[in-house]
Structure formats: structure tokens, C-alpha cells
């Protein structure tokens, strides 16, 4: 039985005062919830704040990106070891916003994946198709290609330490959610691809859904057999909404 996992992706939102209130309310709301795992991926400058507030709690923290390089002349970049220094458990890799707005290729995402594993963090590796790709009927090909770059070289042991997030691009920040059946179909496809590598790893792999997951749709999405939790954008910035989704993961 896979434990559900709910992770907030704050994206580029927050400030010290707002984060303090948000984390305080989320901590209070989830502290009794023991049947699932929780995390928040915050902007880099707030990692120290997240670490000091969440240490010892049932909420892990992490980052939204990292450099594939360990150190050097990479102005503005943040090394994997720096994230490890701040106790990050998770790091989001290959988010569609990184792919589209920052031109991150599948190969860069794969290199970042390796860097995260090497430094003992759990990559939350994102895949997902655009609306055009869905309408063209190529969702599975797109997702397969995004997955392959990691599966082909990482090996089963690395994939076992990973979380995959299926985030259809057309559902991100749009209020338009994939139906439970649409999401389940892609999640099952992802698991079947991983099973070609290693059946046991595929059985234990947590595959999160992301894309306008809200308190009103979280329970029905997470009730699907291959949906093991959520990667939450907008709703992770509102304590009551995030806590409600965390509660839904308990059922
Ligand atoms: P929304 O929940 O705002 O649609 O964002 C999803 C997402 O991109 C999480 O990584």
C-alpha cells in the first residue's frame, strides 16, 4: 500500500510575514494527520525559514529547482549541496514552467534528476502534455518521452527514490482539472512504463497529480488507484485549502 503524499509548490509567492502565518496555520492543521506524508517546496530565500519552522514536524520541505552542477561559475544558480545544507527532502524537477519559460530540455531535467539523487534528495519529476498535444492524441507519447530520459539512464534504484508528478499543462493554474478518469489513465500509463524497468519499483512508486487540485476535487482524484497524492500550486498558498487537501489524502 502506497502512502499518499501532498506537496505544496508555492512557485514565486510569499514573504517572511506571509510564510510565517501560512506555515503556522498549516502546521496546526496537519499535526494530527499521520496516515499520509506532506511537504512544501518554497522559493530558495525561504528555505531557512521553512527549515526552522518545520523541523521536527510531519511536514518536509524542499525547493522548486536546482542546478545540475555541483559548484562553479554559474551566476544565479543554486547547487544541490546547498539545498541539502538546508535539509531539503524534495526538489521539483522538470516543472512545465521551467520547461516552457526557462527553456529546460529533457536532458537538463535528467541531469538535475541525477544531481538531486546524488545529494540524497527526492526528485519530484514532472511530466505532462499541453492542450494541443492532448487534442492531437499524443499525450502518451509526450509523457513517455519525458519519462524515458530519466528511466533510460537512471536505473531502477534511482527511480525507486523518486516521486513522479503528472501535471497536464492545460490544467495548471487554469481552474480546469483533469477528470479522475483522465488523470488515472495517464497515471496507469506512467506506472506501466516504469514496470517495464522494474515491476517492484513501479508498484511502490508514488505518482502525484498536479493541475488545479482543490479541496472540492482532491478526494475523488486521490481515490483513483494510481493517484498517490497531489502537487498543489494555488491552493497551497491558502492554509485552509491546503489543509483540506492534506485531510483528503488521509482517506
Ligand atoms: P495549480 O494547482 O495552481 O494549478 O498548480 C499546479 C502546479 O503547477 C503544481 O506544481
Please explain how this structure is put together.
With 251 residues, the chain is α/β, with parallel strands linked by helices. It has a single domain (5-248), classed as TIM Barrel (Alpha-Beta Barrel), CATH 3.20.20.70. Helices cover 46% and strands 16% of the residues. The protein is built from 12 helices and 8 strands. An 8-stranded parallel β-sheet has the order 7-6-5-4-3-2-1-8. Strand 1 (4-9), helix 1 (16-30) and strand 2 form a beta-alpha-beta unit. Helix 7 packs parallel to helix 9 (180-197). The radius of gyration is 17 Å and the shape is globular. The protein starts with a strand and ends with a helix. The mean pLDDT is 96. The structure holds 1,3-dihydroxyacetonephosphate. 1,3-dihydroxyacetonephosphate binds at residues 9, 95, 167, 172-173, 210-213, 231-235.
Task: Map the helices and strands.
Elements (H helix, E strand, L loop, with lengths): L3 E6 L6 H15 L5 E6 L5 H8 L4 E5 L16 H6 L4 E4 L2 H6 L4 H13 L3 E6 L3 H5 L3 H16 L1 H4 L3 E4 L13 H18 L1 H6 L1 E4 L5 H8 L6 E4 L6 H10 L3
Parallel strand pairs: 1-2, 1-8, 2-3, 3-4, 4-5, 5-6, 6-7
This protein binds 1,3-dihydroxyacetonephosphate (13P).
- The dominant shape is globular
- Poorly predicted regions: none
User: What's the CATH class, please?
Assistant: Alpha Beta
Q: Tally the helices: what do you get?
A: 12
Radius of gyration: 17 Å
Strand order of the largest sheet: 7-6-5-4-3-2-1-8
Q: Mean pLDDT score, rounded?
A: 96
- Structural class category: alpha/beta
Strand content: 15-25%
Query: Element order, helices and strands?
Result: EHEHEHEHHEHHHEHHEHEH
Number of domains: 1
CATH superfamily: Aldolase class I
- Predict the CATH topology: TIM Barrel
Oligomeric state:
single chain
Secondary-structure arrangement, i.e. CATH architecture: Alpha-Beta Barrel
Largest sheet: 8 strands, parallel
DSSP strand tally = 8
First-last Cα distance: 13 Å
How helical, in percent, are the residues?
40-55%
Distinct bound molecules: 1,3-dihydroxyacetonephosphate
Amino acid at each position: 500500500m502506497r502512502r499518499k503524499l501532498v506537496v505544496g509548490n508555492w512557485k514565486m509567492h510569499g514573504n517572511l510575514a506571509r510564510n510565517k502565518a501560512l506555515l503556522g496555520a498549516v502546521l496546526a492543521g496537519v499535526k494530527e494527520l499521520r496516515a499520509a506524508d506532506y511537504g512544501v517546496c518554497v522559493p530558495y530565500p525561504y528555505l531557512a525559514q521553512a527549515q526552522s519552522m518545520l523541523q521536527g514536524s510531519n511536514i518536509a520541505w524542499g525547493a522548486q529547482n536546482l542546478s545540475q552542477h555541483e559548484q562553479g561559475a554559474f551566476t544565479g544558480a543554486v547547487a544541490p549541496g546547498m539545498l541539502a545544507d538546508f535539509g531539503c527532502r524534495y526538489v521539483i524537477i522538470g516543472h512545465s514552467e521551467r520547461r516552457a519559460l526557462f527553456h529546460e530540455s529533457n536532458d537538463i531535467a535528467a541531469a538535475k534528476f541525477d544531481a538531486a539523487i546524488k545529494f540524497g534528495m527526492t526528485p519530484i519529476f514532472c511530466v505532462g502534455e499541453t492542450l494541443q498535444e492532448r487534442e492531437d492524441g499524443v499525450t502518451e507519447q509526450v509523457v513517455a518521452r519525458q519519462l524515458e530520459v530519466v528511466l533510460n539512464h537512471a536505473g531502477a534504484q534511482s527511480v525507486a527514490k523518486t516521486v513522479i508528478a503528472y501535471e497536464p499543462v492545460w490544467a495548471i493554474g487554469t481552474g480546469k482539472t483533469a477528470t479522475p478518469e483522465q488523470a488515472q489513465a495517464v497515471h496507469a500509463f506512467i506506472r506501466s512504463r516504469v514496470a517495464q524497468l522494474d515491476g517492484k519499483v513501479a508498484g511502490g512508486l508514488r505518482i502525484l497529480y498536479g493541475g488545479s487540485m482543490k479541496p472540492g476535487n482532491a478526494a475523488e482524484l486521490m481515490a483513483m488507484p494510481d493517484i498517490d497524492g497531489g502537487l498543489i500550486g494555488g491552493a497551497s498558498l491558502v492554509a485552509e485549502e491546503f489543509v483540506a487537501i492534506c485531510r483528503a489524502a488521509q482517506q
